[in-house]
Design brief:
about 90 residues, alpha+beta, 2 domains, 3 helices, 2 strands, about 25% helix, about 5% strand
């Protein structure tokens, strides 16, 4: 969705078209026009490397800094953002 590869062979591309963003050479799926319009305001991580072959553990590690089975229960990244910067314009 964020790296749709529009020049790949048809059998590898998804069913949606791509749209330009504010960043040169970066295209998003047509499903994200509002995000594409604000693409100069955030960073997009295109790759992630960790030492776990388990998606659950890797996701937990990336979002909280702990593995999913850790004794500590750190808040999810989204929870921290919601608390630190609550939404002021829902649906924007």
């Amino acid at each position: 969705m964020f790296d749709p590869k529009p020049n790949a062979p048809a059998e590898y591309r998804g069913p949606f078209s791509t749209i330009a963003t504010k960043l040169p050479g970066v295209r998003f799926t047509e499903l994200f026009p509002k995000i594409a319009a604000q693409s100069d305001l955030f960073s997009l991580v295109r790759s992630n490397v960790n030492h776990s072959g388990d998606h659950l553990i890797a996701g937990s590690l990336g979002l909280t800094g702990d593995t999913a089975d850790a004794d500590t229960h750190s808040p999810n990244f989204g929870s921290i953002m919601a608390r630190q910067r609550p939404a002021t314009d829902v649906g924007r």
